[in-house]
Amino acid sequence: MRYPIVSALLVTLIAVAGCSPKPEVGSEVIKIGSVAPLTGPQAHLGKDNENGARLAVEEINAKGLSLGGKPVKLELIGEDDQADPKTGTVVAQKLVDMGVAGVIGHLNSGTTIPASKIYADAGIPQISPSATAIAYTAQGYKTAFRVMTNDEQQGKVLGQFAVHSMGAKRIAIIDDRTAYGQGLADEFEKAAKAAGASVVAREFTSDRATDFTAILTSIKSKNPDVVFFGGMDPQGGPMAQQMKRLGLSAKFLGGDGIQNGNFIKLAGAEAEGTVASLPGLPLDAMPGGAGFKQRFEAKFGPIQVYAPYAYDAVYVLIEAMKRADSAEPAKVVAELPKTDFEGVTGRIRFDAKGDTTGGAVTLYQVKNGAWVVLETVK
Asked: Fewer CB within 10 Å of terminal CB in the chain, N or C?
């Protein structure tokens, strides 16, 4: 495996060959991968992740960074996995072959999980800002970490909220059969049943579908109080519209995959009343949320969802490099479990699996066309 530090001479030769602009003469380059869907229905979320990571890289470069007694510059390599597991593994191998020192990503659990084996085999640290499926860190890879609460906690909070706060006794569940959507739906189902609800229907679709008429018609006949959807906003928005069109009076509930402005845009007026969760604190309640919002939006525009976590993930990676005084992946991996970092999103520490500890989950509801905080569960 190549070392992640590339000589200044090589950088100069690449620049002469017409490649993208690179660091100042005299600095060595540390390449960091950032992987998310940059095209397709989830591109708005993927670009949000990449921009969060990019802001951190630009700030660190501006302050100056030295490792092993030498000045270095960070270079963010943004790659598009199209939210597709097969593409995710191709991109992961590409980054390994490029000699990246670490990877921020992937966005989706469905791409993060298969890619994690490739990074683990290469010994390259991976920090996901947004993959919440339990299976990601349950594999036991020493290279796998995340800075966002997983679906065990999120599903539990959602299930209890559906029963105790929404008054649900009869619940229908739909998932998109991705690692994220199905995993969250499974955890939600367990929690809802434990809280006393009955699951009257369990249906599934795909993360490419847009017509849910058949599923919703079947669910309507079961007369549920709440319909829970495990999936993302490109499906959640149309689903909310079609529920209203079919006269399905159940309340609509989802996870972090629909808790964004694009869901409201896609669902239109039918978004009103929808409840969804997001791991972590609301942006304005995050320790560094206000400052991050100002810096990020001045450069990239409105925050979608996960940008603060991608930003923190970069800083966690670089702090591990500083402790190791090296960008050599094996040394960085050894330092990551020692993380105790006060980030924009809060205090970040990892348990033995690589999961962040002490995470919160916040519930939101669409009111007057905007997401409004209902409560935060810690």
From this structure: C
Predicted pLDDT at 1: 42
The CATH superfamily of 5-149+285-345 is Response regulator (3.40.50.2300)
The residue type of 97 is D
Q: pTM here?
A: 0.91
Q: At what angle do helices 213-220 and 233-245 cross, to 10 degrees?
A: 50
Kindly tell me the sign of the dihedral angle through the C-alpha atoms of 317, 346, 161, 220: negative
Homologous superfamily (CATH) for 151-279+361-377: Response regulator (3.40.50.2300)
- What residues does 362 pair with on adjacent strands? 278, 376
Q: What's the burial of 86, exposed, middle or buried (CB within 10 Å: 0-12/13-18/19+)?
A: exposed
CA distance 233 to 259: 8
| Span 111-125, pLDDT tens digits | 999 999 999 999 999
Q: Is the pLDDT of residue 197 over 80?
A: yes
